[in-house]
Amino acid sequence: MDLTGYKGILEGLLFATGDEGLSVKQIRNALDLDAESIEHLVQELIDDYNQPSRGITIMKSNQVLHLTTKPEHSGYYKKLLETPQSSRLSQAALETLAIVAYKQPITRIEIEEVRGVKSDRPVQTLVSRSLIQEVGRKEGIGRPILYGTSTEFLTYFGLRSIEELPPLPENLSEPDIEGEADLFFEKFQDQLDMEKE
Fold it and tell me: Which of 12, 86, 95, 140 is within CB 3.0–4.6 Å of 178 for a Cys-Cys bond?
């Protein structure tokens, strides 16, 4: 049996499961292969990752396989974490923040409907920077998370309350919300950057 194509699939599965990792049984179920073939694929990936030009490896813990960074590179990761993050928000994050600010409470799916693109990363960025937060759950299938702005958001943009946001033009169509609100947030972002220099 030619297992060449399965190696890439296994790598993708390990990447997609992140910190949770995959058990051999889960891999067997997903790939519909016997235990010996799975063992062969895993060993091939481990051999590939053992090359000095590769930055990741496979770790096995409690019969679960995880993709992880190489321990010998830990000094570089530590250095990265100690480096202050850029305070500048990306365009996608600014658009998402504008939508949340003006349409809150709002779900990620509703944000994506306004933006027209997937918004997982910008939402994660804004949550990790504490500019938006979970404010509840929407009733309905799956009970998706509702997001709203945080106190840190107000502090970051120098506002006393959400009511201080500039009003959007009355004739503005919904898909244009991010464009108008973006200008507001970019102005504040530039001002904050100047103050920090």
Answer: 95
- The owner of tokens 């500048």 is 88
Domain endpoint, select from 18, 39, 72: 72
Reference 89, options 76, 100, 78, 105; nearest CA is 100
Q: pLDDT (tens digit, 9 = 90+) per residue, 141-191? A: 889 999 999 988 887 777 778 888 877 655 444 545 555 555 555 655 554
Whole domain around residue 41: which residue ranges? 4-72
| 155 in the same domain as 60 | no
Distance separating alpha carbons of residues 14 and 9, to the nearest angstrom: 9
CATH code of the domain containing 22: 1.10.10.10
Written as six digits, the tokens of 76 are 């570089």
86, part of any domain: no
The token pair at 56 is: 């990741």
State the pTM of this model.
Answer: 0.49
Tell me, what amino acid is at 87?
Answer: S
